[in-house]
Specification:
Layout lengths: L1 E4 L15 E10 L2 E11 L6 H14 L3 E7 L2 E8 L10 E9 L8 H15 L4 E6 L3 H10 L2 E2 L5 H6 L4 E6 L3
Parallel strand pairs: 6-7
Antiparallel strand pairs: 1-4, 2-3, 4-5, 5-6, 7-9, 8-9
The protein binds coenzyme A.
Coenzyme A binds next to strand 6, helix 2 and helix 3.
């Protein structure tokens, strides 16, 4: 397995990552607390329209020198991480982890953790103090970030919140 920078033409291949997931519980954010509730979703692939909506945003991110890395198994893209280059937050010291996905069959083997750690080290090199994550609210995803040390964002980004109001907005303090 190889992890390397993606070329611009490979950004469209992000949608070849197998997004399938059976979700039984999701988190909601109520009065500063995370609350788990039963909610069944059989996610078979990317939501309709997602590649059209987010593809141009990811290309824009690439064009302004964002970090786009893919994990490959025998030439097949099986996971990816995209880190924004544009600083956000009151102190303009946060970078958004814009995309982190691992293909279904490759989950639970440490790849997500490696891609997350790569995002942390790249963000640190760029001088960021925190990562900002608008996380899919599924139990598995949010627990993954909480176990990495992410916490509820205390400086929720209005634009990112408007884009994904159901997401759980998290921050990760980058160790110096
Ligand atoms: C959330 C997601 C990115 C996590 O990726 P992943 O590759 O499954 O995560 P990992 O395997 O690194 O971590 C999961 C656990 O497996 C553990 N693990 C299992 N086998 C392991 C191994 N051989 N080596 C290292 N870690 C292993 C990890 O330590 C980790 O446990 P921890 O969190 O308690 O430390 C992935 O599940 C995913 O793509 N989900 C669906 C899409 C999604 O929601 N993406 C995020 C959008 S915001």
């Amino acid at each position: 397995m190889e992890i390397r920078e993606l070329e611009r033409a490979e950004i469209q291949d992000l949608w070849s990552i197998d997004r399938a997931e059976v979700i039984e519980r999701i988190y909601t954010h109520r009065d500063g607390e995370l609350v788990l509730q039963d909610q069944h979703h059989d996610v078979r692939g990317w939501p309709p329209g997602e590649p059209d909506q987010y593809g141009p945003l990811l290309l824009d991110c690439f064009d302004r020198d964002g970090t786009c890395c893919g994990a490959f198994d025998g030439g097949r893209l099986i996971g990816a991480m995209v880190l924004e280059s544009r600083f956000i937050g009151r102190a303009k010291d946060r970078l958004q982890l814009k995309f982190l996905h691992v293909s279904r069959r490759y989950r639970g083997a440490g790849l997500g953790r490696r891609l997350f750690e790569l995002a942390v080290s790249r963000a640190r090199e760029r001088g960021a103090r925190r990562l900002y994550i608008s996380a899919t609210p599924s139990e598995n995803t949010v627990n993954f970030y909480l176990r990495r040390g992410c916490r509820l964002a205390d400086d929720v980004d209005a634009d990112l919140f408007a884009l994904e109001p159901e997401d759980i907005h998290l921050e990760f303090e980058i160790p110096i």
